[in-house]
Amino acid sequence: MPLPVTALIPRLREICGDDGVITDPNRRRTYESDGITYHAGTPGVVVLPTSTEQVAAVVRLCSESGVPFVPRGAGTGLSAGALPHSQGVLIVTSRMRRILEIDIANERAVVQPGVANLEVTRAAAPHGYYYAPDPSSQQVCSVGGNIAENSGGAHCLKYGFTVNHVTGLEVVTPQGETVRLGGKSADAPGYDLLGAFVGSEGTLGIATEITVRLLRAPQKVRTLLAAFESMDAGGAAVSAIISAGVLPAAVEMMDALSIEAAEAAVACDYPPGAGAVLIVELDGPAADVDAQFDHATQLCRDAGAFEIRTAADADERARIWKGRKSAFAAVGRISPAYIVQDGVVPRTALPEVLRRIAELSAESGIRVANVFHAGDGNLHPLVLFDDSAPEASEKAAEVSGKILDLCIEHGGSITGEHGVGVDKACQMPEMFSPADLETMDLFRSAFDPGGIANPEKLLPTPRLCGERPGVRKDVHPLVAEGTAEQF
Amino acid sequence: MPLPVTALIPRLREICGDDGVITDPNRRRTYESDGITYHAGTPGVVVLPTSTEQVAAVVRLCSESGVPFVPRGAGTGLSAGALPHSQGVLIVTSRMRRILEIDIANERAVVQPGVANLEVTRAAAPHGYYYAPDPSSQQVCSVGGNIAENSGGAHCLKYGFTVNHVTGLEVVTPQGETVRLGGKSADAPGYDLLGAFVGSEGTLGIATEITVRLLRAPQKVRTLLAAFESMDAGGAAVSAIISAGVLPAAVEMMDALSIEAAEAAVACDYPPGAGAVLIVELDGPAADVDAQFDHATQLCRDAGAFEIRTAADADERARIWKGRKSAFAAVGRISPAYIVQDGVVPRTALPEVLRRIAELSAESGIRVANVFHAGDGNLHPLVLFDDSAPEASEKAAEVSGKILDLCIEHGGSITGEHGVGVDKACQMPEMFSPADLETMDLFRSAFDPGGIANPEKLLPTPRLCGERPGVRKDVHPLVAEGTAEQF
Questions:
Q1: Which domain covers residue B191, as residue numbers?
Q2: Residues 325 to 364 of A: which have CB under 8 A from any B CB?
Q3: Which of A244, A291, B125, B253 fits B374 for a cystine, CB–CB 3.0-4.6 Å?
Q4: Reported ipTM
Q5: Where would I find the FAD-binding PCMH-type domain in this sequence (chains A, B) (predicted)?
């Protein structure tokens, strides 16, 4: 039998200090959800460690007591991966935000997990370097959270995900041991547990020190915005660019509804009457960027772009990006409530899937705004609904679910960069066979035999998803029996 | 108690057919060692499956009987990773060599594990694509073996290792289950077990179907050879090139002794009197390559190159590479025996480590030829000795070991691309803490609770390395007690 979480409080105060432990119910409520609106109640207790040693001591205490823990970075996640456990310890990394080293000779930065993504680039910039992964939330999201979710961003078409930029981790395992995975070099002998840890959503432990690759800032960046009458025409431009062998840093697309939302929110002044806008950004050596930029511009024109704007300087570039970067939040201006979906399809299936999404929307009367990383087939449909209307949220959830089914049908994936968390745990059996899921569970249990590390996230459990092959046994249900809170 | 391996033969014949099972002692002897000369005796039995189903059935049979198995590709490995088990089944993939799909629209190839590395590029070339990882043995080594060892090659400075080019695997686990890791897209939800499988040296199972990324052939390739009076001067050129932000596809360096060996073997006609030659290859868009090539040439000149040759066409490029690619084999011309070492140091530590290697060589009287991937700090010292001289092999092994110690001291690694296998299992505790090794062992045991998948490889065992913290327990010692064969 696990101890009640309250029994741990005196020891937690010894480890983290009085100001490092939050027990007050109102202050604990701040941590009720992350970037997506799920509620599982308030965390049993919140701790704010400042060092690896404190994290290890807290986790060891949880392990000895059978009490679950949930790691949390900046709380910007979009899959409820940091949803707290009402009988558990929430370990928040917000006080671990030191940049420990900027090692330009080896092109690496070493940081604590609470450091905000953009701070790494700020620290490297004076040396002419930057950190490539750039989720839209990069001003606030933490590098530790990026590790947990293997975060992407607009530029992962060319530069890859977080996993491609992390070369070393210090990790506290669910049994409270501190281990090192990788280092400053590109490859290490033994199992590449580094790659498996990145994207493990807090279920294998907590990264307490992170070594990332720094890239030399590109010599030149050029950005264009092309307006098309239809999504089909925009999609044709994307295909033409990629198959011509042009590799942009980013290829982003927005449909009429998301353009409307962005205009309402930030007056981004995109070309009026556009059924689709495409943002194409190229970076690299100047000679190469110029040649490819001209090529991409011509391909947009050939695909029917009725207006093409090119950014003359950094200000104009920022203006082009403004509409895209604010799109998610902007949708709040045109709809009281919405679901942000995240799915992937092979690039070749994009036109077909977008048409099917339009049909789904027409049939159900639920509006869907499409904002997406077109270059790598990562869709972010925003499913809009009025939460005051009866059954609107259920209908929206149904449409949202059907969009994911479409992704799976077309050989894609249920998440491109937001992660599984609680949000998509029940969809894992639609993508993976029972043998696949059992293998993942074996792996997880090797790290966490007690089942205390972020339980009920990532893999399906019977309480959330029903009993079926490949579904792991419940260990620490997020909500204790009998509490009224509802997912 | 495990069954004797001979008890499995009738069932193995049912699974693989009579011609798919080798029991004849002389034929079994062919499989005694791989690319490095260790001997642990002949395999108990050899099977040559043709399909995933046959592999799975063989592994299930091993698992039920407690009999160990060893996977083997083309047998070109350099860490004794495919060393057979005298009481086990050797599973050879040489009959699984179909290219299943060349999917140009999604830039992927799907192949069976026995396909030779270079065959993938041959199949993709008519479409203007190629497969990037290029170990020196690429004409014969298998893609499955490349997966097991996470193979690199001369061009991994720019393009990364095998792990950066595999997006999906079908795998038979040590319990005989067939699971899928990843697919055609760049990212998948759940644990990235794909990354952990690549480089797992056959200890987590056998890859039976492999999906790799295809890259568009670069528009232009340019290659130069620069001759320097000393290794120090050549090393300075490498540092200058990298810190100028030039990213060559390959930067290879050879010292006087390896140049001498290459001349003796293939008459590569490198500039006479060179203390070091540097090969620099750039690829990419023509405009970019030309600009960077001129820059790299100038930097070599500034660092003191007394002769620079540039390849005018593919023939001349092949001639420049000929000396480098034949260097390992060529050393046989100037020394009766030698050890190929494989270590990594941070690029910044290269000059210091090379000086220390020269000192070690002078002190011991053992000649060391240096051939290496200079751009990423991956050393391949060839430690030469006369195996007819008393204690020469012991002295050479001592120098070879001290070179690895140097790599570790300087924050590097005991292997860059050849793997751990049997060869370096006992050195793992010098690089990893007991907690690190226990974590790896937990992971391995989650996949392979019976300890039957390539036992005694990768992680240290007491029989080979003595008892100490972090050393896993012996499960299936490669050589049964009392047999005379010696490592």
A1: 99-216
A2: 344, 346-348
A3: B253
A4: 0.75
A5: 38-217
